Fold this sequence. Notes:
Elements: E1 2-9, E2 14-16, H1 26-36, E3 40-44, H2 45-50, E4 53-54, E5 57-58, E6 66-70, E7 82-84, H3 87-97, E8 103-106, H4 110-116, E9 122-128, E10 137-138, E11 147-155, E12 165-172
The structure holds NADP nicotinamide-adenine-dinucleotide phosphate (NAP).
Amino acid sequence: MILSIISAIANNNEIGRKNELLWNLPIDMKHFRKTTSGHAVIMGQKTFESLGTTDGIPGRPLPNRRNIVITLDKDFKRTDCEVVYSIEELDERLKDTMEDTEEAFIIGGGQIYKLFIDKADKLYITHVDAEFPDADTFFPIIDSTKWKIVSEDKHEKDEENIYNTNFVIYEKQ
Ligand SMILES: NC(=O)c1ccc[n+]([C@@H]2O[C@H](COP(=O)([O-])OP(=O)(O)OC[C@H]3O[C@@H](n4cnc5c(N)ncnc54)[C@H](OP(=O)(O)O)[C@@H]3O)[C@@H](O)[C@H]2O)c1
């Protein structure tokens, strides 16, 4: 299995505030949907809650993807997505259910990126050219001695997307 991380990060690695994103960038939403559709997505319980509600209950699985939520809360149960209670359980689950060539995506948030950045094979990072001093959640430092840029795709801001963006793919050196 190929383990990838996907995230959109600002100039100081800011990714969120008060369990929400810091921006509305349709270009990045489209990129995220296109990149992850048809694949497994793995997220922390907080990010799952940030995606919306289901019948009034916090948490909403992303359509057209296998959703896996990681939590330490043994009482957290869902019927509309998979739940794992530790990294070890996640590792076992993925080993048992994924082919070697299949790609799974860690989609956040801050705590979960930190847990997985050293295990990941590939990073899909949208660099958002802006600063958010009130951010409370951050992506870990991308160590340039460990990660090599393999592609870049820059987009100028426009009426819909108010910040310049750069879609960068990093692979482990
Ligand atoms: N910019 C982006 O690309 C992006 C992407 C995703 C999310 N975000 C933002 O990131 C923020 C959320 O991130 P966050 O760091 O607060 O939360 P998070 O990483 O989404 O989830 C944290 C939760 O994961 C579970 N967890 C943590 N360590 C664990 C472990 N070792 N084993 C099992 N479960 C574990 C815990 O769930 P329990 O508390 O249930 O035990 C913990 O509360 C939001 O603002 C969101 O909008 C940004």
